[in-house]
Amino acid sequence: MERKTGIFICKGCDICTRIDTDQLAASSADETVRVVRGHSALCSASGYQLIMEAIGKEDLNAVILAACSPREKSDVFTFPDSLLTERVNLREQVAWSLEGDEQDRQLAAQDYIRMAVARLKSIRNPQPFIPKDLSDEILVVGAGITGITAALEGAKAGYKVHLIEKEAQAGGWSARLHRQMPSAPPYETLREPVYLEALKELESTQNIVLRTSTTIEKIEGQPGDFTVKLSTRGEESLKVGAVVSAMGWKPYDPTRLSSLGYGLSDRIVTNVEFEEKIKADPKGKLPGRILFVQCAGSRNREHLPYCSNFCCGTSLKQAKYIRESNPDSSVFIIYKDIRTPGTYEGLYKSVQADDQVFFTKGEVQAIDIVEDGLSVVMHNTLLGEEVSLKVDLVVLATGMVPAGTDDLNLSYRQGRALPELKYKFPDSHFICFPYETRRTGIYAAGCVRAPMDITSSEEDAAGAMLKAIQCIEATRRGEAVHPRSGDISYPELYMERCTDCKRCTEECPFGSYDETEKGTPQPNPTRCRRCGICMGSCPERVISFADYSVNSISAMIKAVEIPDEFEEKPRILVFVCENDAYPAFDMAAQKGLKWNPCIRVIPVRCIGSINKVWISDALSCGYDGILQIGCKPGDDYQCHFIHGSELTETRGENIQETLQTMMLEPERIRTEFVEITEYNRIPEIISEYLEEIELIGPNPFKGM
Amino acid sequence: MLEINPDIQFKKELIKTSQAPLSKCMQCGTCSVVCSLAPDDKPFPRKEMIWAAWGIRDQLMGNADIWLCHQCGDCSTYCPRGVKPADVLSALRQMSYRYYARPSCIARMMSEVKWLPLALIFPVVIIAVILALAGTLKIPDGSVNYSKFFPHAWLNSSFTLITLISYGLAVYSLKNFIKDLRRQFPDLKFKGGILLQMLRSSRTIAIHTKFGSCSVNRFRKWAHLLVFYGFNLLLLVTVYAIYAALTHRYPLGFFNPFKILGNLAAFMLVIGLGMMIVKRLVGRKTVNSNYSDWLLLISLLLLTLSGVVIEWARFGNWGSAYHLYFFHLVCVWFVIIYLPYTKFGHTFYRLVAISVADAAGRK
Q1: Of A338, A341, A395, B308, whose CB has the highest number of CB atoms within 10 Å?
Q2: Is the domain of B156 the same as that of B12?
Q3: DSSP category for residue A376
Q4: pLDDT in tens, A62-105
Q5: Contact call for A386 and B11, based on CB within 8 A
Q6: Do A388 and B47 touch (CB under 8 A)?
Q7: What secondary structure letter does DSSP report for B252?
Q8: Which helix (H) or strand (E) holds A654?
Q9: ipTM tops the 0.90 cut
Q10: Burial of B281 (0-12, 13-18, 19+ CB in 10 A)
């Protein structure tokens, strides 16, 4: 289709005092540009009207708004879907931020308009991908309190839910509790376990199918279109749109706690065993002196490095059982820190008020069997020295280990379980998207996701179910769920040129690509988060999006006019991640920071989507250096696409090879990581890199 | 290694005596941070607070540190949980009198208001018996002369004897106390004997060094100084009076220097005690005052006031002079003879504890 573009230049917000907008309009000629208009405030009613009239009059199918950042005024600049829109960030990236004289800013503004024109010429209007057999049913794996709550929430929202449980009974660990920690003011009295009500509600809810003693043999497909093969009922398989994994936890293996005396005597039990004992015989006589050892194997590098969240509350709860059953009893609690977040402080205080419950910080050094009981030696106590105490029973407050997600049996090329980050909990971008896993459409909730108590599990269940519903609805519209919510573009593969190198299948953080029997990549578009990492990975440039392609960025790179005189006008191409670095640039400009006008910025969805060809294109065009700015990688990564920014490091070698074949210095390319709050680093990053480029001199390809 | 066995009865008694919500302590150590007495390596009074919450009597009874505390109240003011460590330490000191005093039943009698009548009956009956033995159990005629009512020889010998018995028992108690203190300071040695050490340690007491290091209650230092010196001056005057009586120069004239000194001391005591009483009434929220606190303040005040009043009664030839004199003697009994069994015992225990701490080099 013939491109008919209109350019609209805003003069407001100081743009016209820093840039000669009339000259800019005059220099924006191109065969696709049908109309160029300026306005004192494009975002005003008359400005918007000006644009709409021009669209109608000139029959435009694309508009360029040269005004403020695309992150601003998005509520004003809305146009029909059929119209391609490009926002040129004149205000933040040129007028407000560039040092130097008016000519420097003028050249930058002209380049940015040319880049926008070039981009519009090389992209298409994306059309959504919508699977044919869409299912809006939801699978919930695990019928513990999290799974049951998720199922109830889903059913209440009007979705059919399949709830499966590998045990013969629903209820999970919550069904093994005698009492539950308080959940109502004043948060002092123990309550009946909530699973009793939940199970009743489950029975009376129409839209939930519960299958117990059932496991998963295989999950195939993609969001909106998963096929789940179940173990039990012969060939039964389900079709679901999304999955909630509420697969729960298991207690930390106490046999590894022989240092705390586990296995030495029946008088040393875990909190889980103690609870079961009480549950089995609630009226049974309890011994008079009971010691609780908190953090038994928790917050300990050799065992569980993390806090399991529930053990302090559980011991306090069990202390109440003991004190209520035997008024002469004494309870001792040895802790590292008592952690009773939120309302559990009420439980802590109520137990503390009991004069026959004794607390101290400390560590158990040894437990020995003595006549009629146990002798416990503790050190590092607040009692001031090493102490020994005789007790009848020791309860080890052991922590939670995630049950793991192997049993999902995903038939994904990248493996059958949800990828893990630390401590075997599923990897997600926990800062922004806690329930997400690295498998789109499969959401982790409850203790399989992070250690938590029942109340938090219930909240988690509701959150994950909401995400599952959101996924189904977004998939129905052909949109990405997150983080690029609403994006309808998806990777399109020009298979004729594919060499089956499998880089896309390996590098996709979300396992979007499976393989055919022949070993050819097989995309699953609804698993895709639209980051473009596959596009960056492909040496054959097979993968592109309709509106974000290898060609479109190449065209932008080439649209910049590179001046011959290096001394005054070096050029540095900056690939900026849209998620953190681009807003950081905007914030820097809005805070009045200024930087060198030598840079030309191209926003990318993730720096993992940068294709090697863009580097060679830029260097052969005569750019003196290339800076790629992304989010922080590593264990506590901030990359919205998990390891997009990490990939730039592993791909670095490849790129260095390209530089070598072009006989260029390795310093011609540099990667920086910026958090959104580090906007103040922007000028410094640019000036430091420029100094380095000035040292190695101009790109020899300049002017060729 | 310390074998611990919580004594729940002890903990309950401590809670009752201190009126402090002991179990609320979350062991944060704020009390140790604000306490000017806390050494760098041991968190005082946090460890005492935890021992208290655990009911570990043996660690608390033979503990010098609780005697170094002057109850300035900094810890109670800053405690985030309102546990009032100052009151707990004060209660521990009161429980120490009961723990060490022999016979301990007298200390118990002095610790509760319900036994006050009994505590009064003892001196009244014993003084009456002594008077009967002296043959003077009647109101004498003529101008007021107290020796007609209670002959000096009888008074001095009987009161001295009873005081010696009481203090002799106190020495026995203090020996046990020191024995227990040795648990805390196993290498304890007194250079030149314990009495010399006490003399050396008296210097800090004389100038109230530790008292001055409290930040919240500077006012209390001055009140205590007035009472301290007022009382000691009166002791001096009394000793001189006994000497005067023995050498037949008694009673002293109104302008006798010792008489003037005695009146000045009484004035200091009244002012000092008044300050303490007002402080306890006003500061009820930060510092808890129980029966033992009031008993000491009021008996001291009554002793002083009755002393002044019988002086007037003598000069003014009041009809009620001998009754007032009898009352004054009961007050003397309460303050001096009961001393090891009441809060006034702190003069002994504190002196011993400070001496031990000094000898052991506790900073």
Answers
A1: A395
A2: no
A3: E
A4: 999 999 999 999 999 999 988 999 999 999 999 999 998 899 99
A5: no
A6: no
A7: P
A8: helix A652-661
A9: no
A10: exposed
